[in-house]
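[job 4471] stage=fold_predict status=RUNNING
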Amino acid sequence: MKIYPVILSGGAGTRLWPLSRAVLPKQLLPLVTDKTMLQETALRVADWPELMAPVVVCGNEHRFLVAEQLREIGVAPLGILLEPSGRNTAPAVAAAAHFLAAIDPGAVMLVLPADHVIDRPDMFAAAVRRAADMVEEGALVTFGIVPTGPETGYGYIRRGAAVERPDGCYRVERFVEKPDRATAQDFLRDGGYYWNSGMFLFRAERFLAELTRLCPDIASATEAAVRLGYSDLDFCRLHEDSFNACPSDSIDYAVMEHTERAVVVPADIGWSDVGSWSALWEVQQRDANGNSHRGDVYLDGVSNSLVRAESRIVAVIGVQDLVIVETRDAVLIAHKDQVQRVKQVVEHLKSKARTEHLYHTKVYRPWGHYEGIDAGDRFQVKRITVKPGEKLSLQMHHHRAEHWVVVSGTARVTCGETVRLLSENESTYIPIGMNHRLENPGKLPLHIIEVQSGSYLGEDDIVRFEDIYQRA
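[job 4471] inference complete, writing structure tokens
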């Protein structure tokens, strides 16, 4: 049996603000280890003999980060499917199923969210292999996490009758929405309920058959999105109009709650979806006082808290049960019992047309990254890093001029019809309306300081004439 991991890397992770932002969500961050959650997920399924190269489904704005993070760990994906817009998990899984069925009609999909923690990968592998026996019988398998407490942040799966073989697999009796605490405690005492992990194993064609029967609109829209899609560099762009016309729904609501083929395989694998700061605290190593801390942190009389410093020293004295997260442009302080309300902060930022929920001060691009240093009336200053051999688009701005100063490395600068090389401590000026391009022809990173001045300094004031990354 050939099993293809399908890694779902969509979502914004708003409950982990201010670290997780729309442009750099939690699955692309190193939250638990020194590797990102996407990298941990890809490595988790990289060495099984029965597993093929993974398929990753992600948003268009994350495509270069996803590709770069997989390259860093030596994982070559079978495909990276780009969603034109977020349509929840059912369309994402359906698009991957159509993509795989066209390559291998017998393909088996192991559907994995990119942002989960699994502490016992050997037990997870055993659960997948047990589930594979049920897939041979035509089942759509979901993995139910053996609960360790009365968790109210997860949905639950009620197991039904045991299947004849293999041992330890059950028909799904019903799916249950997130319960209140008293109900969750009842579920724990009952022993027949599992946390809904959002991980699945099934044949692509069997899933598509059930999807066509239960939600034909999703099946037909995603089929067209794959069939009419096209290759763009190393990515597969799903057809925009077809995918955007697809109803938005989760795989549970669309298929798993209604199919008669649903089977649950219990899995005691040290699992967490890291859906909040308190959940992250639970899966991280803690000191003798129960504190999880990272970065330049000073603690005195602190217990059972999560403290994370990204850009400066954070000193905490005489408190307990807090979450304190510092970034360059935002600070979060919350009681661990109240961290679900972080989403309200994000909604507030959206309502005020602010940008702290969208971007960090450091913004990644396929050629490198830039970081805001200072800004004021009619000016802003950025630190720009260009990777060796990379170059920005040939572009023009209607409303701003730019001054570039090379801090280190070598820059090849195009300004109008003039092309010149700049070395350390040399500078140049780009007038408003002038076509220009910045390149790094060297073997070391290029670092420059850019000073922008003008009436409008937004990132959307870019007219691209040529771009090796094929951005609009």
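[job 4471] summary: The chain has three domains: 3-272, 277-344, 362-466.
[job 4471] exit 0
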